[in-house]
Amino acid sequence: MSNWILGLTGGIGAGKTLVSNHLASLGIEIVDADVIARDVVAIGSDGLNAIAKHFGNTILLEDGSLNRAKLREIIFADSEQKSWLNNLLHPMIRQNITERLNNAKSTYVVLSAPLLFENKLDALCNHTLMVDVPVEVQLARTATRDSVSAEQVKNIIASQMSREDKRQKADSILDNHREIALVLTEVETLHRTFLQQAKISK
After folding, report:
1. What is the DSSP string of 16-32?
2. Overall number of domains in the chain
3. Does the annotation list 193 as a binding residue?
């Protein structure tokens, strides 16, 4: 990788988007693994065609797009199906991520990925930043934001690396359980540090 890369992560509902949006407003390019994951299963994509062939056309909505809710139900209930899906999509996603990171033009580039450590994407990064909130805050925020049950949010959290393990792996931790103004001020302080590190490395 020629660019200096910041890996941005955090559990569901932790507030990665708040941080990545602020960094974007400061002129930093964001490569969002979630966006890329949607792109590789867009209508007409090789990813979606392979999924429909494997699971049948009932996995598609009326407009031909992926029924994400149904797919999520299947893979959370069946680890073999989850493995099959990961083996299909992860290489596609990783290749796309690598291309976008290499093509970024800002002083440094952010790789935003909820599963940064789980999918070993941190290996691509010069520094990792975890946006952190207590689990009960994750539950409340996500249930409200996505209009899903607390049980479903718990299942998603359980499927991800534990908060404690992520905290141990991250190079920096940003506490997002406080006033937004304080969080954004710290983001700007970190941003200045990252700019310096990126310039030194070039």
Report:
1. HHHHHHHHHHTT-EEEE
2. 1
3. no
How far, in Å, CA of 10 to CA of 55, rounded?
A: 30
Whether pLDDT at 52 is above 80: yes
Of the candidates 158, 176, 169, the one whose C-alpha atom is nearest the C-alpha of residue 117 is 169
pLDDT at 22: 97
Amino acid at 120: K
| pTM of structure | 0.86
66 by DSSP, 3-state: which? Answer: strand
Q: Is 169 annotated as a binding residue?
A: no
CA distances from 90 to 148, 163, 189, 191 (A): 26, 23, 33, 29
Domain span holding position 98: 5-201
Examine the pLDDT at 110 and tell me if it is beyond 90: yes
- Residues 125-149: tens digit of each pLDDT: 999 999 999 888 877 777 677 666 7
To which H or E segment does residue 68 belong? Answer: helix 68-77
Whether 70 has a binding-site annotation, put simply, is: no
Helix (H), strand (E), coil (C) string for 110-175: EEECCCCCCCCHHHHCCEEEEEECCHHHHHHHHHHHHCCCHHHHHHHHHHCCCHHHHHHHCCEEEE
Mean pLDDT lowest among 87-96, 150-159, 169-178: 150-159
3-state secondary structure of 64: coil
- CATH for 112: 3.40.50.300
The response to whether 15 counts as a known ligand-binding position is: yes
pLDDT at 1: 53
Is 82 known as a binding-site position?
A: no
